[in-house]
């Protein structure tokens, strides 16, 4: 479980450029949850997730992960970063090894594991991101954009984190590349029920497809938290923060405004088509 | 304005020694003043195609004419590049100067335009993209959307007739994307500029008046957006998206309901469903 | 630490010095530096110090900012002064180390040490002053124009200036990128801070490889973007901002030349 209490972060405190990046944020995320963090650029999302594996120390407040206070001065940072894996935006830009195998093995190697254990972890990680073992001895730089990104994600998964955090995992990918990554994340979560996955996204369609719960950041504050349905229901507030809702949610909300009796928590096309099919049948029988 | 005749582009594969075709015998004619979106997934050849439109790449076969000029004719290289200006994907990697107005001045300086005329163009182009107040700023302090608008302004300063944008929004957040799309739309509608937009976002393609879908170096669909998106199965098979509302009506059609196939916006879809659900209204 | 270096930064302003022609400023700075190494009497140094103080006042830049620029130089200053203090011999012996008789400070040593510190400090102040009051574009343009005559002996004046422009433009981008890669590799358990020199050098690989790859990719992209905006070197290129010499440059040049003659005469 992740427990964040009254977290604040002031950027360049005491300097002329001082800026409150995060202010008084509290939330809890239970083990095995699938959480999306949304918010416009500069809302504090990236700063928040970097706190969760102690890359940034908070100015105020406390972060506990599985009961360990990671803001304590004597905390074992390596252990924290092993337990909380962080995949940065455009992670493929951090690849550096000669072979795919070596790059994915970088994390486990830093943990000081045995060669056998490292090999097992690399293979498992490859499997989780859906990469074929033929690629192991290839140079990561020969791969396609989508493949490179999956190698980079595998490089974090190979540390077997209990919490996986991804900053805009689908940024810059085309629809096919995006769907591949998203589907892998769904599978990963299914096969590892206890793994908590947190991802930052600008795409409400991605959020609708993956997440159970959503944190909405706005101007350094936690503006909303709740289930996907709860959050998307408040489409007017989201729009005020410069955020969208999925097109399909917008459609149903407009129909409700026009007087159609339909539930407000529709956010996937599949579900919408079932609901509308029922309504249309009813309408035909009237 | 742009005439592409049997364009091929190939390279020799190092491993197999075979010729690989990125573009294969592509024909396309783009009218002056039109707004054409070229849609395709990564590796469909769309970016390679774009780079042929201002002579950065030259055809291995076939011809590309910009305003009647052959891109393979060395004598016209600069005329072609200043007639068909190009904006690239990564906003950070196409800005040369450390000050915004110097950046916009870069192209006309290269063309040997006289100093006072450059000044006039720089002011005008920054105005068009709504960035005048940032004339003296440092690009690295700007947002992605702002940087990309500077990139557009620095191409406009050549006073081109065509602007080609190679996935200009792929690295931007939603706000940046909408700023850039608004700017592009404005260039086409208010200034009559011919726009070729390379993208993989269907909602951007929907703003164009013609959508060309590329796959494996060929044009597979070429029509107005409404017609293009009506081919839901074909689009999905290629690995592209259709708007959610289009997909919703497609699914309902599959279930046997009578639904139109040319709906691409929320507003249109709402009207259709309201009509069909009339009887249920309270 | 890098934040404190004032050489290379630019602060917009409207002062006499800001308005001077970049070419003149570069040339006068060079003359100033030469003079700085030619003079040796205390009186001459006092005069140069006063002249420099006057220039700083004329630039209307905060004095605090200029002094801050000296901070990163502090260690170099201390090091050179100690070195000179003990290594230069000659004149009366002022102090001898009681434990190590060969270690002593001589009159000449003390003099040289003070002079070196003054020289280096004034050098940093004047070069800072040049870059603080001249926009990067004007600075590179000025260098290009000044190097132009040397093109006869194949000095690539335009290319040097263009390289400087691009370097200035990409410094913030690459330093941001460096920070990001450090964080990303740290998240994978990389350790950039502990161990001996060899271990640390090895630890830099996960940082340097991605950084170089990215720099090359950016360079490639930039070259294409420049090509597509008709860049073809310095030939027939015009400039939006023209450099113009005014009465200010004349006055400054006359003052400095007179000052030089005076200083060398003392």
Write a structural description.
The complex is a heterotrimer of chains A (286), B (282) and C (266). With 286 residues, chain A is α/β, with parallel strands linked by helices. Chain A has two domains: 2-245, P-loop containing nucleotide triphosphate hydrolases (Rossmann fold), CATH 3.40.50.300; 246-286, no CATH class. Chain A has eleven helices and ten strands. In chain A, a hairpin with a 2-residue loop joins strand 4 and strand 5. The longest helix of chain A has 17 residues, at 175-191. Chain B is of the alpha/beta class. Chain B folds into two domains: 2-96 and 158-237, P-loop containing nucleotide triphosphate hydrolases (Rossmann fold, 3-Layer(aba) Sandwich); 243-282, no CATH class. In chain B, 39% of the residues lie in helices and 22% in strands. Chain B contains eleven helices and ten strands. Chain B has helices spanning 46-52, 77-83, 100-110, 115-128, 144-156, 174-191, 202-205, 225-230, 232-238, 244-254, 266-276; strands at 2-12, 19-30, 35-39, 61-66, 69-70, 84-87, 162-166, 194-199, 210-215, 218-223. The mean pLDDT of chain B is 91. Chain C has 266 residues and is mainly alpha-helical. Chain C folds into two domains: 1-134 and 240-266, no CATH class; 156-235, no CATH class. Chain C has eleven helices and two strands. The two termini of chain C are 40 Å apart. Chains in contact: A-B, A-C, B-C. The A-B interface holds A 40-41, 144-146, 171-177, 202, 205, 242-244, 246-248, 250-251, 254-255, 258-261, 269-270, 272-273, 276-277, 279-280, 282-283, 286 and B 41-43, 143-144, 170-171, 173-176, 200, 239-241, 243-245, 247-248, 251-252, 255, 257, 266-267, 269-270, 273-274, 276-282.
At a glance:
The complex is a heterotrimer of chains A (286), B (282) and C (266). Chain A has 286 residues and is α/β, with parallel strands linked by helices.
Strand order of the largest sheet of chain C: 1-2
Per DSSP, the total helix count of chain C is 11
Helix-strand makeup class of chain A: alpha/beta
Task: Identify the strand order in the major beta sheet of chain A.
Answer: 6-7-8-3-9-10
Most extensive interface: A-B, 39 and 37 residues
Strand content of chain C: under 5%
The average pLDDT of chain C is: 84
Most strands sheet of chain C: 2 strands, antiparallel
Mean pLDDT of chain A: 90
CATH superfamily of the largest domain in chain A: P-loop containing nucleotide triphosphate hydrolases
Report Rg of chain C: 23 Å
Characterize the overall form of chain C.
flat
| Helix-strand category of chain C | mainly alpha
